[in-house]
């Protein structure tokens, strides 16, 4: 076998070529032909493969959990392309760890199949009906749970209406889950656990609400059966995983692997899981996951410091055409803005967790965000701000207002988002649509240029915050300054203020 330094022609990834990979690339030591499925994962993107699939792979390397292999699934047309690529390489994935001290790679094999992606989701429903499937997990993004302005299930959404009216041919992952639960009940099979792996506070409760709300609208007796028999544990997931582009493909080829969907990631992972599984689970704690009955504090720390921190950085970075999060941390004003807002307006509303104080976690996040090898683009991080600002930042803002604390930096953060949604950077380049609500956001952003309150009057996002004078007045002042003097001037004005 070759080493990385001797590579001339990269090896196409497959079961048959595992032994031909460079010596210093780790690979499965277990017999993949003997793996049997236990998990269907919906929304199989980079994060899942770098995180949940990696934990399972580590168990399999220890000779455990060989009956818990993953079957991938998706409900969007784009998922079919991922299916085709992964099946062509036997569902193997190259994980490339990007650490400032060096690069390393391993091939993981915990996924063994990918369900056909079809309208009506018949193959997905059939896969979830298999009694061997005991967990259905998902990463469908924070905005994928059909929540209304009050955080409940939006029963008027066209996708949800479709699934209520046509429960046998659902459009959504949740409709497919409800159909599978119905079939399992009718066949006498036990329920599966629904496991949300998205960045939502109380993510298990959110998934439970969506599934039960949809089921109750279709068949109340079925909803009662799901409520009695299924569980939806909360979890906190953490690993920075950039999108894959040409640079990542080149990195894989340079290592010696022709992988069409490699994944790069940082050298940090954390998974905190509520131990609440109705039909068994792999022993994840054996490979570093934390199993607990109280996930909330871990969730809050991560969402408020890491996820909210991403939004604090990304909108300023987009406006100033700073390409990556690491570059934002090198930018004097953006980095100082991040530190000041976090220290004064975020950390005070974060509780400690066992072994980690909030200020220590912030120091860890600063190191992780500053990793220059992680090309996590500001565009990716700024995507779907309508879900991420409402889910990550506004709860902190409400806590600060309730406590009578400062909200000046959080108001500036929201003003930067409003300015970004106008669709142009300060150098005049266009910001391409980057949110499911982009047309309405852009309309409100352009109206807010002359009347800032037009932005806060988006009640589906801000609720009653427009009527909170401590916040609204500061937002209005900051947005006016950004439009008149520019982003850097606004950042420096904020930084010049004393604590």
Automatic annotation (TrEMBL):
GO molecular function, one term: oxidoreductase activity, acting on the CH-OH group of donors, NAD or NADP as acceptor
Residues in Mannitol dehydrogenase N-terminal domain copies: 38-285
Gene3D superfamilies: N-(1-d-carboxylethyl)-l-norvaline Dehydrogenase, domain 2 (1.10.1040.10), NAD(P)-binding Rossmann-like Domain (3.40.50.720)
Organism domain of life: Bacteria
Coiled coil listed as a keyword: no
Residue intervals of the Mannitol dehydrogenase C-terminal domain: 294-483
Keyword Heme: no
The entry's keywords: Oxidoreductase
Name of the protein described by the UniProt record: Mannitol 2-dehydrogenase
Originating organism: Marivita hallyeonensis
Phylogenetic classification of the source organism: Bacteria, Pseudomonadati, Pseudomonadota, Alphaproteobacteria, Rhodobacterales
């Amino acid at each position: 076998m070759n080493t990385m330094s001797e590579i001339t022609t990269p090896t196409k990834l497959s079961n048959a070529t595992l032994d031909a990979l460079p010596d210093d690339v780790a690979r499965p030591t277990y017999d993949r032909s003997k793996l049997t499925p236990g998990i269907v994962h919906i929304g199989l993107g980079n994060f899942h493969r770098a995180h949940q699939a990696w934990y399972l792979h580590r168990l399999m390397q220890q000779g455990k959990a060989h009956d818990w292999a993953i079957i991938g699934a998706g409900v969007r047309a784009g998922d079919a392309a991922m299916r085709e690529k992964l099946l062509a390489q036997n569902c193997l994935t190259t994980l490339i760890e990007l650490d400032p001290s060096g690069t390393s790679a391993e091939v993981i094999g915990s996924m063994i199949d990918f369900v056909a992606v079809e309208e009506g989701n018949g193959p997905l429903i059939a896969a979830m009906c298999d009694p061997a499937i005991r967990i259905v997990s998902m990463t469908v993004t924070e905005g994928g749970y059909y929540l209304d302005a009050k955080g409940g299930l939006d029963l008027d959404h066209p996708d949800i209406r479709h699934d209520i009216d046509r429960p046998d041919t659902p459009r959504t992952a949740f409709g497919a889950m409800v159909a599978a639960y119905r079939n399992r009940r009718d066949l006498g099979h036990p329920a599966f656990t629904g496991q949300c792996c998205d960045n939502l506070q109380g993510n298990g409760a959110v998934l439970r609400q969506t599934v039960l709300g949809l089921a109750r609208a279709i068949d109340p007796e079925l909803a009662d059966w799901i409520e009695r028999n299924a569980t939806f544990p909360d979890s906190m997931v953490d690993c920075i995983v950039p999108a894959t582009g040409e640079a990542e493909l080149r990195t894989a080829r340079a290592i010696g692997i022709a992988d069409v969907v490699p994944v790069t990631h940082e050298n940090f992972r954390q998974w905190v899981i509520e131990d609440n599984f109705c039909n068994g689970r792999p022993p994840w704690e054996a490979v570093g996951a934390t199993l607990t009955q109280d996930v909330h504090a871990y969730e809050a720390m991560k969402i408020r410091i890491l996820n909210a921190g991403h939004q604090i950085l990304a909108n300023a970075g987009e406006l100033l055409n700073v390409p990556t999060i690491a570059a934002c941390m090198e930018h004097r004003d953006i980095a100082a803005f991040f530190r000041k807002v976090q220290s004064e307006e975020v950390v005070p509303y974060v509780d400690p967790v066992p072994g980690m104080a909030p200020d220590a976690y912030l120091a860890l996040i600063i190191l992780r965000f500053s990793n220059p090898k992680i090309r996590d683009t500001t565009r990716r991080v700024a995507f779907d701000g309508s879900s991420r600002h409402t889910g990550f930042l506004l709860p902190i803002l409400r806590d600060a207002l309730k406590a009578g604390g400062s909200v000046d930096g959080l108001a500036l953060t929201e003003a930067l988002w409003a300015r970004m949604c106008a669709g142009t950077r300060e150098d005049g380049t266009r910001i391409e649509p980057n949110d499911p609500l982009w047309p309405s956001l852009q309309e409100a952003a352009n109206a807010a240029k002359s009347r800032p309150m037009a932005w806060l009057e988006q009640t589906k996002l801000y609720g009653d915050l427009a009527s909170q004078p401590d916040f609204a007045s500061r937002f209005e002042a900051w947005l006016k300054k950004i439009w008149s003097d520019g982003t850097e001037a606004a950042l420096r004005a904020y930084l010049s203020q004393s604590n």
